[in-house]
Design brief:
With about 325 residues, this protein is an all-alpha fold. It has twelve helices and three strands; from the N terminus they run ααααααααααββαβα.
Length: about 325
């Protein structure tokens, strides 16, 4: 009886606080709404009318969220936004409502609205991986929209990379396999973002080289010097392009491998992806369909070292081969 009374007091206190919060936006209460609603519903301890009305708002907001998710699957993004907005109007302390609406806005290319929603989601829950993903991705898209290529663009792009890395960290912490798809998208946009920074630097370098050549040309004319332009270019140009070997790419994830594992079939896969395949389909090579001896799995050290060297030298890990950073398409 003591525990029951205590639970009743806790739930009633929260719901009273929630009702007050609806009228006074200066108060923020971070108790997880789903737990409160679930507990209240299970124990049937919501008695007086004001608390019951608040619980109905919470329940209705969850229904609108589910409805919005359904519209996302149907690719009816405007209707999804309307549903998420209804949920937020009923309960504005759930980070997921804002991050879901952010996704819908992004899919409609409403980048400013999507960024604002992602920012609101992160104010409520700084560990919202999807909000970090959307926020970082939109920063990178905004960089592409700038008309001029300057050093400040690199700094802005690095902010986007930082947000994506935060999203990556949150997904790594989670053991939920449903987040694997998000993890793949994060890794892809991280790779493309780093590629974009590389291409921006390349463009700035080319412009600086032209400026330097013009300066040297002016000096040579004034002082009547004969310059070996081939030798000069060899010394001032950077190596600006690389070819990413296809065998660096996991055949399952289609992204650069982090921990390449060599199977007795002769093929290498990223450790996380092949382990998931084994859990789902047994010890069979997903490409060759050959039976795999689990005791024969070894780390492909030579391949891993090659990948690490590429990352260290060029600072990006993607398989994107765009020549123009404005042409890169983010997920």
């Amino acid at each position: 009886m003591g525990n029951r009374a205590s639970n009743h007091e806790e739930i009633s206190a929260f719901l009273s606080e929630f009702e007050y919060q609806q009228k006074n936006f200066s108060i923020q209460y971070d108790y997880p709404q789903r737990k409160v609603f679930k507990a209240a519903k299970k124990r049937n301890q919501i008695s007086h009318s004001s608390n019951r009305r608040c619980s109905q708002n919470i329940k209705k907001s969850l229904e609108y969220k589910v409805e919005g998710n359904h519209y996302i699957q149907l690719k009816q993004y405007k209707k999804a936004i309307e549903s998420y907005t209804q949920a937020i109007n009923l309960y504005d302390r759930d980070s997921i409502y804002f991050s879901n609406r952010s996704v819908a806005n992004k899919l409609l290319n409403r980048f400013q609205e999507a960024k604002q929603d992602a920012e609101k989601a992160l104010k409520i829950d700084e560990h919202n991986s999807r909000a970090h993903f959307i926020y970082g991705t939109i920063i990178l898209i905004e960089v592409q929209m700038f008309p001029d290529t300057t050093e400040s663009l690199i700094k802005q792009a690095q902010l986007g990379i930082k947000e994506l890395e935060s999203a990556q960290d949150q997904v790594k912490i989670s053991k939920n396999e449903q987040k694997n798809k998000l993890r793949v998208l994060i890794n892809q946009n991280l790779a493309k973002g780093k590629r974009m920074i590389y291409l921006i630097r390349q463009e700035i370098d080319k412009r600086n080289i032209q400026s330097l050549k013009q300066t040297l040309l002016d000096i040579s004319h004034r002082q009547q010097l004969q310059l070996d332009w081939n030798l000069i270019e060899q010394n001032i140009k950077r190596k600006i392009e690389i070819q990413m070997p296809e065998y660096f790419v996991c055949p399952i994830l289609f992204e650069i491998m982090e921990e390449p594992i060599l199977l007795n079939s002769g093929l290498s896969y990223d450790k996380s992806s092949i382990q998931q395949q084994f859990r789902q389909n047994g010890y069979i090579d997903p490409l060759t369909r050959q039976s795999i001896d689990p005791l024969s799995l070894i780390e492909n050290i030579q391949l891993r070292n090659g990948i690490i060297e590429i990352k260290r030298e060029y600072g990006w890990i993607g398989i994107e081969h765009e020549k123009d950073y404005k042409a890169i398409r983010f997920e």
